[in-house]
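re: the backbone from monday

yeah here it is again, tokenized this time
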């Protein structure tokens, strides 16, 4: 009988420790917790790059008056789920450096991978030469991208998404 009590206490302790470890990993890794129960902090979001006076809405169409606007399609990489997927259409512009803010979604050319990568700016810093760079992260990725991204690598700033 004593061994059953010892076993039960050990099992309860082990389950508590395991649960705490799993939920801590979810909370502090940047993963989305189910129903956002564990992570109720404000999430990064893009800045407001379109003024309301640049949008005219009619009964059956809308006009967005922004020069240099282009249409973008996306690959199904899952890194930006649920914001971007293969069915999404994006409206992008070529940004100026002063247009970029933490929280913005940009398309950039990696120095290590082929093609454009579309991720969110999660931080910015300055290197040892005084050059500003950005830290990027896919919304659905648990960790930021490994390489710093400089402005000359950024090709587009996402303004709007539609499906």
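seq for it, each position gets an aa:
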């Amino acid at each position: 009988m004593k061994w059953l009590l010892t076993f039960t206490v050990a099992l309860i302790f082990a389950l508590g420790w395991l649960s705490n470890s799993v939920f801590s990993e979810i909370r502090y890794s940047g993963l989305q917790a189910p129903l956002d129960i564990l992570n109720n902090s404000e999430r990064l979001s893009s800045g407001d790059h379109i003024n309301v006076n640049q949008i005219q809405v009619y009964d059956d169409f809308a006009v967005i008056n922004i020069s240099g606007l282009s249409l973008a399609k996306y690959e199904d990489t899952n890194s930006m789920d649920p914001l971007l997927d293969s069915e999404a259409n994006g409206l992008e512009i070529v940004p100026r450096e002063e247009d970029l803010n933490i929280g913005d979604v940009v398309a950039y050319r990696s120095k290590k991978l082929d093609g454009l990568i579309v991720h969110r700016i999660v931080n910015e810093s300055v290197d040892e030469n005084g050059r500003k760079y950005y830290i990027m992260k896919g919304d659905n990725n648990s960790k930021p991208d490994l390489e710093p991204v400089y402005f000359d690598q950024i090709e587009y700033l996402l303004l709007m998404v539609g499906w």
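Residues 25 and 57 are 45 Å apart (CA to CA). Helices lie at 2-29.
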